[in-house]
Write a structure and sequence with these properties.
Elements lengths: L3 H6 L10 H11 L13 H104 L8 H113 L16
Length: about 280
């Protein structure tokens, strides 16, 4: 039964959350559900209005929460995309640096090999020059000896002694020349070995320097990746904290709305209080 004052107050409640035409249908479908605010003090019409109004408020609140969730998800996704792009950039840069290192090392090794080849060519030419000089000197000395003749009127014995002495001198010259050639060849060999040792040491230094730079690049890239991971972690944490704060704000705001709307409805649709007994009967 609807009381007269309820009929007069029925049109007093106005709210963006309330649609009179749909309120009764909603109430009949969900009337078993109970909220945190007691509806015991409300009239049946008030209960209908409150249940329907509360559902609309909840729908709006849920939409706000969903919006905050989507904003959080977008921030996290954006942070992850940024981190992914940063990691890709770090890897690309590291690859480029290492490729450059490899190319530089190759160029240095080729330069070292060419320097060794050029030095060996000079050593060979110098050795050839010395050998030719030794041969020319030897030949000139031998030719001078061969051009000498025994003294006029020398006996056969003296001529024989002269030839023997000349042959001995030629043999000595040839021996000295052979020794000089051996020395020149040994010096050339030693120079080649020294050049090879120098080149080997240079190549080892190139490899060591390249390895050191490569390790430095990798360490730098690792530090950048760690920083990127920390930034992503911070961004995700900030997005979650922002959502948490937004959710708390939404909850607090809509708690006030719930209460305001409930109070407005209760002000117009509260059941009248039943009258109490007038007291004990008087004695005669």
């Amino acid at each position: 039964m609807i009381y007269e004052h309820e009929k007069s107050e029925l049109f007093h409640y106005a709210s963006p959350y309330y649609d009179p035409e749909k309120a009764h249908e909603y109430y009949m479908k969900h009337r078993k559900l109970k909220g945190r605010r007691s509806t015991a003090v409300l009239t049946d019409e008030g209960k209908e209005i409150w249940e329907y109004t509360k559902a609309n408020i909840k729908e709006e609140k849920d939409a706000k929460v969903e919006e905050a969730k989507n904003e959080q998800a977008q921030k996290i996704e954006s942070a992850r995309e940024t981190a992914s792009a940063t990691r890709e950039s770090i890897s690309k840069k590291l690859k480029e640096l290492n490729e450059k290192l490899t190319a530089n090392a190759k160029a240095k090794k080729e330069a070292a090999a060419n320097a060794e080849k050029s030095k060996n060519e000079k050593i060979s030419k110098e050795n050839e020059r010395k050998l030719q000089e030794i041969s020319r000197s030897q030949q000139a000395k031998i030719e001078r000896l061969q051009a000498q003749k025994p003294p006029e009127g020398a006996s056969d014995y003296e001529k024989q002694k002269f030839r023997e002495k000349r042959d001995q001198e030629i043999a000595r010259i040839q021996g000295e020349a052979a020794s000089d050639r051996d020395k020149a060849t040994a010096a050339s060999k030693k120079a080649r070995e020294t050049a090879a040792t120098d080149v080997k040491a240079n190549l080892e230094k190139i490899d060591a320097d390249t390895k050191k730079e490569r390790e430095s690049n990798s360490e730098s890239a690792s530090q950048q990746r760690t920083e990127c991971a920390n930034q992503l972690k911070s961004a995700i944490s900030a997005a979650r904290e922002a959502y948490k704060a937004a959710k708390q704000g939404i909850d607090a705001n809509y708690e006030e709305i719930y209460q305001q709307e409930y109070d407005k409805i209760a002000a117009s649709y509260t059941k009248p209080k039943k009258g109490k007994s007038s007291g004990k009967s008087s004695k005669k």
